[in-house]
Design goal:
With 348 residues, the protein is of the alpha+beta class. It contains twelve helices and ten strands.
Length: 348
Amino acid sequence: MSKNTLSERQQLILGLLVQEFVELTNPIGSAHLVRQYSLDVSPATVRNELAALSELGYLRQPHTSAGRVPTEKGYRFFVGELMQRTELPAATKHTISHQFYQARHEVDDWMRLAASILANQSQAASLVTPPQVSRATFKHLELIHTSGRQILMVVVLENGQVIQQMLALREVQTQEQLSQAANELNAAFSGKASNLLERDYPQLSLLAQDILKLLRKEIVAADTRLLGRIFHDGWNHVLAEPEFSESNDAQRALRVLEERPLLEDLLSQTMGQSEIGGVQVLIGGEGRWEELNHFSLVLARYGAADAASGYLGVLGPIRMSYGRAITAVDYVAGIMSDIVVENLSETD
């Protein structure tokens, strides 16, 4: 969403309101913003801008006489356009680096350390998955006609994993056409790692190209399923938030971290094509994960591209300190990537 959507004054007021609400947890009114930030406009002017921001969907008013709180749209705009990136203090960086230096040769130790540091720095719940050296490697594909445009795709990976997926093609295809497309894909990709499927292959037939696009999604999901053990910390920070003191929302979100199929689905859809070190922010479940309706996730992939990588991140209420969370995730992901590269070089 472009900054041009809002005036400079609206951007300023929205940014200040998000910051205040994250800190205070109460709806924020116009008089409070004017007083707190010595704004050179009247409370009535700010009130009009708050009303305009509400009409545009960036804010909402819980009660008629209450102030405003950000909506998911408001948080997305804040994170994408208004938030200022910060750096961890030099002393904090030094301490963290020293802790990792001491633990760098024991994978479980630096997984636990990463989870602990992320939880403490972000004041949220953390999750860390170990780096996995292997990527899903394609072995064989079969395409079986069922009825109409429906086909069954059976994918066999080198590690023995078998994926079966019903697909709907754009047009009805005969079994002979499906077998020919499968033969093309088998000849082109048998024994190839998942990253090689990400390119375009114009020499393939149109049907084979269509199947390849669908195959990529399954291989990316298979990559994510190589999570290994998952390390957590900091759930007490989430449970202590006032919005969760009298609800089961926190326990529902905990299921995402603890139940592997849910986490695999989330990571495959949000991080499957992400680059090493790229930070992704998921706000309110993005309409896909009901368990996360009242939460946000800040995630990153760490490691060495095409060699070994894992995931790390933090989970907290939508009203989280995004700047603090993103800074912590970004910094720890960078250190973890350095350790992976160092360990890989020592084994060469």
